[in-house]
Amino acid sequence: MEFTYSQEDQAIRREVRNFLDANWPQECRAYRINDMIARDLPGLERNTANITPEEVRAFYRKLGDAGILGIGFPEEYGGRGGGHLARYIVQSELSAAGAPYPNVAITMVAPIFMTIGSTSFLEEYLPPLIAGEVEYCVGYTEPSAGTDLASLKTKAERDGNHFVINGQKIFSSTAHYADYYFLATRTDPDAPKHKGISLFLLDMKQPGITINPLITNSGVRTNIVFLDNVRVPATCLLGNENEGWRYLTEALAFERYASMASSPLVCAYNELAKLREGPISGEDAAKLAKIRADTRAADLLSLNAAWTANDGRPPIVEAAAAKVNVSEVRLALSRLALEMLGPNALLTEYNPQAPAGGQFDLMYRHSVINLFTAGANDVQRDTIATVGQGLPRSRKSSRNVAVEKSA
Q1: pLDDT < 70 positions in the chain
Q2: I want to staple 80 with a disulfide (CB 3.0 to 4.6 A). Which of 48, 70, 127, 340 is the partner?
Q3: Which residues contact 347 (CB under 8 A, 6 or more apart)?
Q4: Which residues contact 282 (CB under 8 A, 6 or more apart)?
Q5: Which residues have a Cβ under 8 Å from the Cβ of 255 and sit 6 or more positions away?
Q6: Strand 136-139 to 180-186 pairing
Q7: Which of 80, 114, 134 is the last residue of a domain?
Q8: Which residues lie below 8 Å from residue 316, measured CB to CB, with a gap of 6+?
Q9: CATH number, domain at 142?
């Protein structure tokens, strides 16, 4: 697999690096290994790189003012042209520097807007999005609908020219400072589970929305969102009623390769190799060589997903392959770092004696979550097998019959 970048792509990379040199200090780049989200709970320790939501939003506006967020979007909506590959380059460079990037808005929500939005809708919502003036969050996962997202139970019931929404969402990571909620609901409870889903765009200031913090084992804040009799006009419905699953599958494909950016993984390998300079055993050298090859493969799979989207094809299989590989190599690399760097590698980011500023400990704790975010890896393997290779879907009933017969 051989990729080359055009002169235009290389110019975008230089532009983003020059922007970072002017707007993102070196002392803030410790988080390039983990691509962290801002934390803002009262009393929670923070250092220079662990910026607040207000600082994140200010940085987004700088990106918008510089025209960087407009890369990959049509000029008639305030963009600069280009496609998914150009946006992937922007995201990769920002992630490699540990800088904030409006991942949800740019790589998950905006592509669906472009697919199902009318001209008037795009004229209203795209310009402020690519100017960095607004932030989005997504409401997909529920306590009983994670891996099997089509089992979601949040209801949107039509009442004349309005819908009334009730339910609960979990893992809405930027809900505490987002402006809009990209929400998946059930609008036809009697339809097959993949057929009765609809998408809505909600103002987060809408009455009836309650946001509670949920802190993960890596210290990153996500949220639980409660929706109690949230009444919205029917114009908040995105696309056709009850056809939301079709839009969701495309949105999730973009989320998988975008949320699993490979550039922090490459940075992590480089950091580990630098810390292990000097005499090294043959066994450790072999382990480093293997993880280097795995890192390169994951990087290329991410690039392939972006290239597929750039070619006008939803990267369903390519994104699944990238997500599985990046998340599993990330976990393997963090384990190897803890093994090679010894007990000090378990020191947290707030201990000055921690190697790499404690980022490998944080990486290990966060890597476990990555196996499930944007779709559990076992489910992604099923997608690769069935959609990519045309293999039949497994059936639990068939396995049970086989077990009964063998008994």
Answers
A1: 1-3, 30-51, 218, 257-260, 394-407
A2: 70
A3: 353, 354, 355, 358, 361
A4: none
A5: 107, 108, 138, 374
A6: parallel
A7: 134
A8: 249, 250, 253, 383, 387
A9: 2.40.110.10
Length of the chain: 407
Kindly state whether residues 91 and 167 are assigned to the same domain: no
Q: Phi/psi of residue 261, each to 5°?
A: -55, 135
Kindly state whether residue 397 falls inside one of the protein's structural domains. no
Query: Is 255 a catalytic site residue?
Result: yes
Whether 252 is covered by a domain: the verdict is no
Of 220, 213, 290, 203, which Cα lies nearest the Cα of 259?
220
186 within 8 A of 154, measured Cβ to Cβ: yes
Q: Which residues sit opposite 238 in a β-bridge?
A: 199
Residue type, 282: G
Number of structural domains found in the chain: 3
226: exposed, middle or buried (C-beta count within 10 Å: 0-12, 13-18, 19+)? middle
In a domain, 254, yes or no: no
pTM: 0.81
CATH number of the domain to which 62 belongs: 1.10.540.10
Q: Supply the pLDDT for residue 258.
A: 67
